[in-house]
Specification:
Strand content: 5-15%
CATH architecture of the domain at 155-346: 3-Layer(aba) Sandwich
CATH superfamily of the domain at 155-346: P-loop containing nucleotide triphosphate hydrolases
Number of strands: 17
Structural class: alpha/beta
Number of helices: 23
CATH class of the domain at 155-346: Alpha Beta
Bound molecules: adenosine-5'-diphosphate, magnesium ion
CATH topology of the domain at 155-346: Rossmann fold
Strand order of the largest sheet: 7-8-6-9-10-5-11
Distance between the termini: 58 Å
Length: 590
């Protein structure tokens, strides 16, 4: 290689290691220096870009260099008006781009490496701004439509509250009040109710639905799984049938004549319908949908949320929307990803709940755990045994559950052990769930089908197999199935050693706290926001430069700037969105 002839001066970049012949760098990036270039100190530091197969460092650096040479002058490039930019004390865009790509030799490298150099902050600021603008636009579009005013006499609502076996918590009453205020307006409500697992969101949904019914409109409740939708059906029946309101059931397995009858009921104005995704299917027509309630909204995408709204669109009207989630969304994320929704938080658990005692135990001590179940169940308690697999294979998971079921049935003579998994017929699943809820089964072996929403307050022991493989959000959801009654509950996280560092960190977090917000913050730190929200699934916008945790401090200024720009420079709003979001902006028009 002529380039590497002895005597040639090179500048190399790579990881220096101690090899057989002294120090070595395997496959370094290198650059030939001219004869007279001694030491080779350049005008700027050399950035290292994340590359990919087929696009090497040199090519990428070359492309970037050409782009930088063509950067328009600052007044053409800058979309944030100077008088708004100046008070923030951040760099202009041109300066920021030049600094990150050609950092001057005396740049503060620590700041740069941590992603908080003013030049990087500037880019993050603009990206967050663009994202905020697009959500504001989506929101403005929805708000410009009209929804029916849902202000009934409140007689049914009062009767329901009167008949409840418990008193609503202060937080439930407050959130209910916020919803009622929204429903009384002709602007469509877009409200997210956030409440940790077990905080009592279902009754809040029922009260909202009843508000719509009292105003002569229809309400629809959609849940992400059959199991959860059926549970809602039972709860709503129990609460509402005594008041003369009978829910129509529209699950995925409703077919034939039953389906035709359900569709007919919905089309002719039955006040309340409960179901799954089936609610959004073709053929479902509402006579006058006034309120769409979506439970566990993180399981649905933005698109599905919009689809149910579109179902309810009638001449000039859209329904109000209420979405509920137990996945606590850290505030910083809520402000970026959900800026199109108003947020209500149920930040109080019903009285008498005690935190779930959580331990992590190696699978080698499985027999001790089985003993523990025997002791608890003999004492009148009930237990879940959850089989989980990392692969989303319902079949393997179901098999694992069948094996565990056989094992526990053999190990626990005298106790009744039930089984639910996704491969069972809906009727079988419902039977097992009901038997467990009624206390006829002491142990329920289940797959993650019970992850979301399942409510059996007497169950106070939960065992989660392969806990080391699950994410924090899922562990928290699963654990949320216990600790719902007044009894002290416990959760055993069974793991297979050795534990990796991340898995160890997750299990430690679970042992330390039951607070969903703290768990979500930790999750965000361990995994990053895209994963937490399931970006791909929900069609949320991904951030390229900004990091909602690192750059959270920018958000208040971002919000103020977005408002000012919308008022004073609508053309710049368009260009900012186009620059950062481009084609993805289309979803906002949905
Ligand atoms: P989540 O917020 O997880 O959906 P649920 O609505 O399933 O919670 O409620 C959990 C349990 O708490 C249910 O059994 C419900 O009946 C009960 N519950 C709800 N609100 C209260 C309250 N204010 N006082 C006592 N129990 C309540
Ligand atoms: Mg729920």
């Amino acid at each position: 290689m002529a380039q590497l002839a002895p005597g040639t001066r090179l500048r190399c970049y790579g990881e220096v290691r101690l090899g057989g012949n002294g120090l070595e760098i395997v496959h370094p990036q290198y650059q030939r220096l001219a004869e007279d270039e001694i030491g080779g100190v350049e005008a700027s530091l050399t950035p290292i870009y994340p590359t990919t197969e087929g696009l090497g460092q040199k090519r990428l650096a070359g492309v970037v260099a050409r782009a930088l040479d063509r950067l328009p002058p600052v007044d053409e490039l800058e979309l944030i008006p100077a008088d708004l930019l100046a008070p923030l004390g951040i760099a202009d865009l041109r300066q920021a781009l030049l600094t990150v790509h050609r950092p001057p030799p005396d740049v503060d490298r620590d700041l740069l490496a941590s992603g908080i150099h003013p030049a990087q902050r500037r880019l993050a600021f603009e990206e967050l701004l663009a994202q905020n603008l697009i959500l504001k636009r989506l929101r403005a579009r929805i708000r410009s439509q009209t929804a029916p005013r849902l202000a009934g006499a409140g007689r049914l609502r009062a009767a329901l509250i009167e008949r409840l076996p418990f008193r609503l918590t202060g937080a439930q009453r407050r959130v209910d009040g916020e919803i009622q205020a929204d429903l009384g307006r002709t602007q469509p409500m877009l409200r997210l109710v956030q409440g940790d697992v077990g905080s009592g969101k279902t009754i809040v949904a029922a009260l909202a639905a009843l508000g719509a019914v009292e105003a002569g409109q229809q309400a629809a409740v959609m849940a992400p799984t059959e199991l959860l939708a059926e549970q809602h059906l039972r709860a709503f029946r129990g609460w509402l049938e005594p008041l003369g309101v009978t829910p129509v059931w529209l699950g995925g397995k409703v077919t034939g004549k039953a389906r035709a009858a359900a569709l007919e009921a919905v089309a002719s104005g039955s006040p309340l319908v409960i179901g799954t995704h089936a609610l959004m299917q073709e053929g479902v027509r509402f006579a006058r949908l006034g309120l769409a309630i979506i439970d566990e909204q993180h399981r649905f995408g933005v698109h599905q949320r919009l689809a149910l709204r579109d179902k309810g669109r009638t001449a000039g009207h859209v329904p109000h929307q209420l979405v509920m989630t137990a996945t606590p969304i850290p505030r910083t994320l809520a402000m970026t990803q959900y800026a199109d929704l108003d947020v209500s938080v149920i930040d109080e658990l019903p009285p008498g709940r005690t935190p779930v005692q959580t331990v992590a135990i190696s699978d080698a001590r499985r027999h001790e755990v089985v003993e523990r179940i025997r002791a608890a169940c003999t004492d009148g308690r009930q237990a879940y045994w959850v089989c989980t697999l990392i692969e989303e294979s319902g079949q393997l998971e179901a098999q694992a559950a069948e094996v565990a079921h056989a094992e526990l049935t053999a190990a626990l003579p005298g106790l009744r052990v039930g089984l639910v998994h996704g491969r069972l017929k809906p009727a079988e699943k419902a039977r097992a769930m009901q038997a467990f809820a009624a206390g006829e089964l002491q142990v329920l072996v289940a797959t993650t089908v019970i992850e979301v929403g399942v409510d059996v307050p007497n169950a106070s022991l939960m065992v989660i197999e392969n806990a080391e493989r699950l994410g924090l959000a899922q562990l928290h959801q699963l654990r949320g199935r216990v600790g719902r009654g007044s009894r002290a509950s416990s959760c055993v996280l069974l793991y297979r050693p050795p534990l990796g560092a991340l898995a160890r960190a997750r299990l430690d977090t679970m042992r330390e706290t039951c607070d969903g917000f703290r768990i979500a913050e930790q999750d965000l730190r361990l995994r990053g926001p895209g994963e937490v929200l399931g970006t791909r699934q929900t069609g949320q916008i991904e951030l390229r430069v900004a990091d909602v945790v690192r750059d959270a401090g920018l958000l208040p200024d971002v919000h103020r700037m977005a408002d000012r720009l919308a008022e004073t420079a609508p053309d710049r709003v368009e260009r900012l969105i186009e620059r950062w979001v481009g084609g993805a902006a289309r979803y906002a028009g949905a």
